[in-house]
Structure formats: structure tokens, C-alpha cells
């Protein structure tokens, strides 16, 4: 009995540290997920909210992180002749809020819908699709995303995110 309790405690403790490691990596300057995604009130919401995807299995989340195919980013052309890869985050009044992903950090633009044209993205790549994250760090990051999305404390095995 005491062993079961100790074992459960040890498991809880080890998944806790994995979540903490993942959180540190997520908001780390270099990996920089938090520069574009907000979770638990921290970070900047430039890209999509990860709450929905964070409920999926670790392999599905990992695939989305490393995917070179984009679903939301578009090439945006403005009336003034600007052209940039942009993520449309929402609306302010009747204007569109678009993040210019060619800038680092991405730049928020508020533009009238009538002043922009959009076409398919053929330029921008998700940063972790270019600089792939090693499986151990990715497992920690995925554990943190799942925890932030749904409170899940289940440990994520690096073998499941490769
Ligand atoms: C420069 C900004 C930027 C950085 C840095 C960034 N992302 Fe993203 N992320 C985006 C954008 C924009 C999308 C939407 C891409 C698309 O069009 O499908 C996205 C998509 C995603 C998705 C898929 C979401 C969905 O619902 O389909 C996941 C998961 C994700 N990012 C996780 C991460 C993680 C983890 C990191 C850090 C290792 C990271 N991102 C770093 C901007 C960024």
C-alpha cells in the first residue's frame, strides 16, 4: 500500500517537472513559442490559440508543431503595395487585425478589409518546422501544452512525438 502511494507520488512528481520544463521551453527566448502563442495568460497571441489542439494526442500536437504545411497564414497585399505573410487574428471594430510574420517580433496591423487582398501562403514557414525540436524537448513542450489546454498531467514519452 505504502509503495503504491509512493509510486503514485513519484509519477506525479516526475510529470510535474516535465510540465515545468515544457513551460520554461515554451516561453524561452530561443524556442520562442510564447512570442507567438499565449497560454495561461502568458505570451503573445500572434498565432492560433492552442487550447483546442492541446486536447489532442501528443503525436497530433507534435505533428502540427513540425508541420511545413500552413492552414491559416496567407500572403497579404495592402492597398499601399505592402506584401507580407500574415495571420489574421480577429477584428477590432470593423477592421481586421493581421500580424505581419515577416517581422520579428511579428507586427500587429489593423487594416480595413477592403484595403487588403489575400492569397495562399507560399513563403512563410512555422519556425519549429524549419528548426526541428529534438524529441525530448518536444515531449516536454507537448506535455505543457496539454496541461495548459486541459489540465492533463499525463507524462509524454519522447517516442510518441518523434
Ligand atoms: C513567429 C511566430 C510563431 C512562433 C515562434 C511559433 N509559432 Fe506556432 N504557429 C504560428 C502561426 C502563425 C501558426 C498558424 C500556422 C498555419 O497557418 O497553419 C502556428 C501554428 C501552431 C500550431 C498548430 C495550431 C493549430 O490549431 O493548427 C501549434 C501546435 C503550434 N503553432 C505550436 C508552436 C510551438 C510549440 C512553438 C514553439 C516551439 C511555436 N508554435 C512557435 C506562429 C508561431
Briefly say what this structure is.
The protein folds into two domains: 93 residues, Orthogonal Bundle (Cytochrome Bc1 Complex, Chain D, domain 2); 47 residues. Helices cover 33% and strands 20% of the residues. It contains four helices and five strands, in the order ααβββββαα.
Task: Give an overview in words.
By secondary structure, the chain is α+β, with helices and mostly antiparallel strands. It folds into 2 domains: 93 residues, Cytochrome Bc1 Complex, Chain D, domain 2; 47 residues. A 5-stranded antiparallel beta sheet has the order 4-3-2-1-5, with no helix packed on it. A hairpin with a 6-residue loop joins strand 3 and strand 4. The longest helix is centred in the first third of the chain and has 25 residues. It is elongated. The two termini are 36 Å apart. It binds heme C. The site of heme C has 26 residues, from helix 2 and helix 3.
